[in-house]
Design a protein that fits this description.
With 636 residues, this protein is an alpha/beta fold. 44% of the residues lie in helices and 12% in strands. The longest helix is centred in the N-terminal third of the chain and has 31 residues.
């Protein structure tokens, strides 16, 4: 007796719905286990919050699956032609088969990559094609498995048990979703800020290069001519002599630049941190977007990508992904909660990246290899500039863009221009001659970008910001470049007092005629001079760092209470950096090399007082500071 003959047609379709729901819960469970057992955005969530994600995330997929089955169930009931019914049932079974095959594909890829450091992302050529064939084979096997499972249901009491269990599972999911919705109160989007209508609508472009030291740039007095073009621009620029980062990692530095908030407020310090709650909606790109700007981010996935850091309503396009690709609509955040919405987005990324790579549609990038192991960072920067101008050429509205170039990111360099390293081989890491050539290459790229804007006739209506995320080797205790180029040579001058990347967003907003929102921590550099003695906060992740600014390899931070990924918090005061090691209660003091406006010793507060300011800042931002011993151990 066949499956079709053993049950009525209605029972057969009901069994398919049961299998679809079970397949979705299995898929979500496997992905949830992947995220919850490794450093991820769930690492800083409580177990109850993570458990809510497990129950709520299946709801959209279940709705899609049931809708898919019903679409083919209806014509199957209306058209009494056996081949048509067979085709309808076969197509209706495709959704759960796809879900199961994806779950198996990702589980296998997780295993091989974790154990052998080999998976879809590292496959190329015939092996990449083999992964595509393997996924197809898994789909066929999943389809056959569902058919056999359906027959097993028809012959056993499992079907009746499942009919009781499935509604219970769905009820639990819906109750969790309702609880999240009720407890959320006003949505985070209610706190979005636009400000008054703009006085002017110039294009805005932020050009940053990873790990760029001011001390290696001739525009900052370096003995080698590494930045001839940028130096020419200074006569018409607002130029900052003593600028500092607010974080020792690209992720936190770029996030703080966009949000105008200190990393200690957003709790985004290092991977796997993301922006959460209202912080996901409060940022410069969102303000500009609400004023009609089209926004693009061109950088690298994982490390500086706004979608990966959960920066919502921010960029129309980010690293060759458009906002239309954001598979999870905005309303889902209200209905499902931000955690479940972000989780579904990451699930989509993991599946789509591997499928598109396996079938040769879009290459999957290994974020770690992209910034550390690759010797082709400069050639990839060429592609980034092409992507930027492709977006600009397609834009009718004013645009806001951020392009983050990686040519100066070590420890090895592949400069496009060879002047100081001619005839040499890069035998060691962090070789100065190769780094200086990388800086020279960045200068040429700035020239190319400015020329491209001029050739398109939009340079005179564009604001350009040149900056970096942190110093060479992820150092945070160095002077860093920062300069603004406003249309018509407006706001020209030299700022000698300490500035920070956190000041970029308020400065741009004031130029546009928008009042700085209260949630921004930085200050505009246009209307008033920065206080020479103001304290500039800087963070670094928890790791094995033994001294201020020592070079170390990028990798996942330690995530553990009470400070989670935060390991160091310090302040710049005049020409000094006071950095508190949170694990050892040690305050390390260092002088800033090449500072052009040092203060007298009497203007610098006592180290213990500085330490107390740091501790108070932590406490005010919700950190448990009971583990910090006082008085602090001072280390010079």
């Amino acid at each position: 007796m066949t499956f079709a003959a053993s049950k009525s047609k209605a029972d057969r379709w009901m069994i398919l719905i049961v299998l679809t729901v079970l397949a979705v819960y299995f898929y979500i469970m496997m992905e949830w286990l992947f995220f919850v057992t490794k450093p991820s955005f769930m690492s800083t969530l409580g177990f109850i919050e993570a458990l809510k994600i497990l129950w709520i995330a299946p709801i959209p997929l279940i709705a899609m699956g049931i809708a898919w089955v019903f679409i083919f169930w209806i014509p199957s009931g209306l058209i009494r032609i056996r081949p048509v019914r067979a085709v309808c049932y076969a197509v209706g079974s495709a959704f759960p088969a796809l879900i199961l095959s994806l779950a198996a594909f990702l589980m296998i890829d997780n295993f091989t990559y974790t154990i052998f450091r080999f998976g879809v992302r590292s496959a190329s050529g015939f092996l990449r094609i083999s992964y595509g064939l393997f996924l197809l084979a898994l789909f066929i096997l999943s389809y056959r498995f569902l058919y056999r499972a359906g027959k097993a249901f028809a012959k056993s009491s499992l079907y009746r048990i499942a009919i009781l269990i499935i509604p219970l599972l769905i009820i639990i999911s819906l109750v969790c979703a309702v609880a999240v919705y009720v407890s959320s109160g006003p949505t985070a989007r209610d706190s979005e800020y636009a400000g008054a209508p703009l006085k002017r609508r110039p294009n805005i472009l932020i050009i940053s290069s990873d790990g760029l030291n001011a001390e290696n740039m001739s525009v900052y007095g370096y003995h080698r001519e590494t930045t001839p073009f940028i130096k020419e621009l200074t006569s018409g620029a607002l130029f900052c002599e003593n600028n500092f980062t607010n974080a020792g990692s690209s992720l936190a530095s770029i996030a703080s630049m966009f949000t105008g908030k200190l990393p200690t407020r957003t709790r985004l310090i290092y991977h796997p941190d993301i922006l959460k709650g209202i912080h996901a909606y409060q940022h410069l790109p969102g303000i500009l977007k609400r004023h009609g700007y089209r926004n693009i981010e061109v950088s690298v996935r994982h490390h500086t990508d706004p979608y990966d850091m959960n920066m919502r309503n921010s960029f129309d396009e980010a690293n060759r992904r458009s906002v239309q690709e954001r598979y999870v609509p905005g309303w889902s955040t209200v209905m499902l909660g931000q955690g479940s919405s972000y989780f579904l987005g990451k699930m989509y990324d993991r599946a789509a990246d591997r499928i598109l790579h396996a079938y040769g549609v879009r290459k999957m990038v290994d974020p770690f290899a992209e910034v550390v192991k690759s010797g082709k960072k400069y050639t990839r920067d060429v592609a980034r500039i092409i992507d930027l101008f492709s977006f600009i050429d397609a834009s009718s509205a004013p645009f806001f863009g951020h392009i983050h170039l990686l040519g100066t990111h070590g420890p090895l360099f592949n400069p496009g221009k060879r002047q100081f390293s001619v005839g040499q081989k890069q035998k060691d890491r962090w070789m100065t001659d190769f780094y200086d050539d990388a800086v020279l290459s960045f200068d040429a790229q700035v020239d190319e970008i400015v020329t491209g804007l001029r050739d398109r006739g939009i340079l005179d209506n564009s604001v350009i910001v040149i900056c970096t995320d942190h110093g060479q080797g992820w150092a945070y205790d160095l002077k860093l470049p920062l300069m603004f180029l406003f249309p018509g040579g407006e706001q020209v001058g030299w700022v000698t007092t300490n500035t920070q990347n956190l000041d970029i967003a308020p400065t741009l907003l004031e130029y546009l005629g928008v009042k700085k929102p209260e949630w921004m921590d930085g200050q505009s550099l246009i209307s008033q001079a920065a206080d020479p003695g103001r304290l500039i906060f800087v963070v670094d992740r928890r790791h094995g760092l033994t001294g201020v600014g020592k070079r170390r390899e990028e990798g996942d931070a330690v995530v553990a209470p009470p400070f989670y990924t935060l390991g160091f918090l310090g302040v710049f005061c005049c020409d000094k950096l006071f950095m508190l090691n949170l694990d050892e209660s040690t305050l390390m003091i260092s002088n800033i090399k090449g500072h052009t406006a040092p203060c007298s010793e009497k203007d610098v507060p006592d180290p213990q007082k500085i330490g107390q300011i740091i501790i108070d800042h932590l406490r005010e931002n919700g950190y448990d500071t009971s583990s910090i011993e006082s008085p602090l151990v001072i280390q010079r």
